[in-house]
Amino acid sequence: MSVMYNKSQAIMKSISSIQLLSSSTLSIKTEIMTVKEYTQQICNKMKHSIILTLLLISTGLLHAQNSEIEKVFTEINSLVASKDVDEIVAHYNQANDPILEESQNHYKNLIQLDSLSYVLKANRVYVEGDTATAIVFEDKSYYKYERNHTELKWSTFTLIKAKNDWVINEVHDRNYQQAKFVELNMEFHPTKRSMVATARVEFSILKEGQTNLLFLLNRGLSIKSITNSKGVSLPFKRSGLSVEIPWKSDLVQGENIVLNFHYSGEFYNEFAELGYSLVNIGEEGCFANFVTEWYPKLSGTLTKAKADLHYTVPEGLVVASVGKFVSKEELNANTLTLTE
Fold first, then answer.
1. In Å, how far are 8, 124, 164, 260, 286 from 56, measured between CA atoms?
2. Do the beta carbons of residue 151 and residue 264 sit within 8 Å?
3. How many domains does the chain have?
4. How far apart are CA 93 and CA 103, in angstroms?
5. Domain range for 73
């Protein structure tokens, strides 16, 4: 009724204009256009209201579905704590035999770990019909050989709707960091069985949706600081071999990042209980294998990159390193050797 009333007012205004300005066709046309414009404004407002309503409904439904999917991982966390493998596996697609077998073996081994702390958390969820993709962070800590072990990683979970419930159908490791270049400056002190070093690590982000950067570093080495390319100090968390650097926002695909690590200490032998060592700093010799995380290494499988390696060692020691020999320089009874 309000629309009809306003429209009638506009028409009456047009009639009045005709009576007062009967010789001015321009004024009549202007008043008639005003009626059309007003009607169009009403239509546009109605369209906007309908679109907004549909958008709110769609957003509400999407939020509800995301909550249902996030609930799957929350329930798995609780079931891991109670060591109920059968109920955990019930959250997986019962028609997918390979994923059922894989998940059952995984969780049977997982719940056997000593002093286990385990959390799955979905950071992003994408829903398309009866299929959903979740970007999930896994934080696993436990004790082995009387020391803490922490394993952090991102995974991509694919879920499907089965009998009105969301179940996990596929799980894949999410390799989102790729090393591009590393520069290491290392000074070894064999008599102290220690080293002091800096590392400049350049890498790129291959996939979006993660909230942190993950590195590995030998537990015997202490990190003094981590800075970005502008020299700004960054917060970080250390546990066991794992180094977690929370990021200011979700990482963006294609982003290039440069970090500088300042660290020192001695190499810890993770294989002592097995009767051998792959690391050592001592007068008898210094060595380290790639798997011992003797420098800050990106977590994941895309860790290898070109590098410049600068070794400073006491006089009398000879550096044997990967790469091509570049130069050698005597520095106050020490020897600096560069390879690339």
1. 34, 20, 23, 45, 64
2. no
3. 3
4. 10
5. 66-173
Determine contact, residues 219/268, Cβ cutoff 8 Å: yes
Q: Rounded to two decimals, what is the model's pTM?
A: 0.78
- Which token pair is 292? 């011992």
209 and 157 inside one domain: no
CATH number at residue 298: 2.60.40.1730
Contacts of residues 86-91 at CB distance under 8 Å and 24 or more positions apart, as own/partner, are 91/167, 91/168
What's the full length of the chain, in residues? 340
pLDDT in tens, the chain (340 residues): 333 334 344 434 443 444 444 444 444 444 555 666 767 777 776 666 665 554 444 444 445 668 899 999 999 999 999 999 999 999 999 999 999 999 999 999 999 999 999 999 999 999 999 999 999 999 999 999 999 999 999 999 999 999 889 999 999 999 999 999 999 999 999 999 999 999 999 999 999 999 999 999 999 999 999 999 999 999 999 999 999 999 988 999 999 999 999 999 999 999 989 998 999 989 888 888 888 999 999 999 999 899 999 999 888 888 888 888 888 888 776 665 655 5
- Kind and range of the H or E run holding 3: helix 2-20
